[in-house]
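Worked example 3 (structure in, sequence out).
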C-alpha cells in the first residue's frame, strides 16, 4: 500500500540527490530515527526511537450512502458533524489555522466555490472575526459548524519543499532546463461558453485556428519549447527535477551556495500519472526496494527505462521565481503543518478542515490553500510540512486514514437543507 501511494499525490516524495564528483553538496544521508516536530502545543515525535510512527485513534465518520458519480460536495451530500467546540484542537493549532484562514479570506470571498456549498458572502462574518484576534479556539467554535462531506472517510498524504542542485546558466553538469510559462500556452474557462461547463477549464495551444492539447512531457523534453518558454535555470539531475515538478515548488541550490526559490506557475493541461503505481504493477522493484530511495535508485540505475517511465506522466509543470515562501493554488503563502492541498470540487479553497486520522502528527486543523494533480475526490488531502529533513521524512512517509470534517460558516447547513440539490443535512 505504501509503495502504491508513494507517487500518487502531488507531494510526499523523498528525492535523494545523486552524488556528483566535485559537487559542493554531499549526498543526503538517511533521516535520523527521531524527528521532533510540533503539531499544536504537543511535541510529536514523527518516529519513535525504534522507528515506529506515533499512532492516534481517529474519529469514526457517520455512515451515509453517497450517490454514484457525485462530482461535487453538494452532489455527494453533507451531514452535520460534531460541534466544533468538541473537536480536539490545541490553542497553537487554532492560532496558526486562523492566521492561514485570514490570509485566504480575500480569495475565499472572491472565488466561485465549485464545491456547490458556499457563496462568497457566506464567509464575510468569519473573515471579519478572524481579523479581530482574541481566543482562536473560541473563534472557530463561534464562527463555524463542522460537516461531513460524503462518507467522510479521509485519506491524507504529505508534501514538502525539496532542495535540488541548479545553476542560473547552462554549464557542464547542469543541462536540465527549468521552464517558465510558455508564451503560447492558453487557459480556457469553459464556463464562459456554457453554464453547464461552469468551473471547468482546459489548457492548450492554438494551431491553425484550432485549440489543441499542449505538448506533453516527451515532446517538451525533445525540444518542443524552443523559443516558446523562458528558461529560469538549469537543474543538475533529471530525476531530481521530475520530483520537484511533482512537489510543485522548491529550492535550487546554486553552485555558489546561494538559493533560488521557484514555485508552481502553471501546468501543460495533461493528466497526471503516478509512476510508483506503474512500477509496482510491472514488478520493476525487487524485495528491499520498496522505498523512495529504492525507486530513485532504480531510475538512476536504468536511465533509459527510467526516462521512458517518467515520460508516461504526460503532465509537465512550469515555474516562476519566488521572492518569498512557496505559494499554493490560491496565490498565498503556504505554511508547514497548517496548509493542505484538496480538491476544490469538494472543499472550498481557503476553508478550514479538521482531520482526525490514525497518525498523531496529521491530526488537527488544516486550511485548504492548495491543489494537486492527483488530489481528487471527496476527503482526499495532501498535507504540507514545510522544508528540511524533518519535513521531508514526515511528508515522504505520510499515509493517514480516518475522518474529515469541513468547517463551514454557521448557518450553511440550514441554507443547504432549504434549497441545494444533493445536500442531505441532518441534525
Amino acid at each position: 500500500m505504501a509503495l502504491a501511494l508513494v507517487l500518487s499525490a502531488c507531494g510526499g516524495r523523498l528525492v535523494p540527490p545523486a552524488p556528483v564528483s566535485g559537487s559542493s553538496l554531499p549526498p543526503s544521508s538517511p533521516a535520523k530515527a527521531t524527528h521532533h516536530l510540533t503539531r499544536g502545543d504537543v511535541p510529536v515525535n514523527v518516529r519513535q526511537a525504534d522507528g515506529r510512527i506515533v499512532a492516534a485513534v481517529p474519529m469514526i465518520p457517520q455512515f451515509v450512502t453517497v450517490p454514484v458519480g457525485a462530482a461535487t460536495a453538494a452532489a455527494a451530500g453533507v451531514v452535520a458533524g460534531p460541534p466544533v467546540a468538541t473537536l480536539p484542537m490545541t490553542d497553537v493549532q487554532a492560532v496558526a489555522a486562523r492566521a492561514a484562514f485570514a490570509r485566504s479570506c480575500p480569495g475565499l470571498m472572491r472565488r466561485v466555490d465549485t464545491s456547490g456549498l458556499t457563496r462568497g458572502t457566506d464567509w464575510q462574518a468569519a473573515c471579519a472575526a478572524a481579523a479581530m484576534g482574541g481566543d482562536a479556539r473560541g473563534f472557530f467554535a463561534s464562527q463555524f459548524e463542522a460537516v461531513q462531506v460524503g462518507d467522510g472517510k479521509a485519506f491524507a498524504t504529505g508534501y514538502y519543499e525539496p532542495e535540488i542542485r541548479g545553476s542560473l546558466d547552462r554549464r557542464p553538469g547542469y543541462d536540465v532546463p527549468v521552464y517558465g510559462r510558455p508564451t503560447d500556452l492558453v487557459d480556457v474557462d469553459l464556463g464562459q461558453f456554457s453554464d453547464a461547463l461552469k468551473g471547468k477549464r482546459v489548457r492548450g495551444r492554438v494551431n491553425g485556428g484550432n485549440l489543441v492539447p499542449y505538448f506533453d512531457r516527451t515532446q517538451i523534453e525533445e525540444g518542443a519549447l524552443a523559443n516558446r518558454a523562458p528558461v529560469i535555470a538549469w537543474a543538475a539531475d533529471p530525476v531530481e527535477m521530475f520530483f520537484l515538478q511533482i512537489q510543485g515548488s522548491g529550492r535550487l541550490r546554486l553552485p555558489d551556495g546561494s538559493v533560488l526559490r521557484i514555485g508552481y506557475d502553471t501546468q501543460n493541461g495533461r493528466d497526471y500519472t503516478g509512476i510508483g503505481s506503474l512500477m509496482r504493477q510491472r514488478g520493476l522493484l525487487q524485495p528491499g526496494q520498496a522505498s523512495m530511495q529504492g525507486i530513485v535508485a532504480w531510475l538512476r540505475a536504468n536511465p533509459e527505462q527510467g526516462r521512458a517511465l517518467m515520460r508516461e506522466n504526460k503532465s509537465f509543470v512550469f515555474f516562476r521565481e519566488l521572492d518569498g515562501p512557496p505559494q499554493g493554488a490560491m496565490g498565498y503563502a503556504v505554511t508547514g503543518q497548517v496548509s493542505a492541498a484538496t480538491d476544490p470540487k469538494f472543499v472550498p479553497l481557503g476553508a478550514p478542515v479538521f482531520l482526525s486520522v490514525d497518525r498523531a502528527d496529521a491530526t488537527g486543523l488544516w486550511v485548504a490553500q492548495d491543489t494537486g494533480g492527483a488530489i481528487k475526490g471527496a476527503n482526499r488531502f495532501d498535507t504540507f510540512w514545510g522544508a528540511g529533513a524533518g519535513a521531508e521524512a514526515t511528508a515522504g512517509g505520510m499515509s493517514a486514514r480516518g475522518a474529515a470534517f469541513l468547517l463551514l460558516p454557521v448557518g450553511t447547513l440550514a441554507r443547504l437543507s432549504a434549497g441545494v440539490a444533493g445536500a442531505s443535512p441532518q441534525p
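Notes: The chain has twelve helices and 19 strands. The two ends are 36 Å apart (CA to CA).
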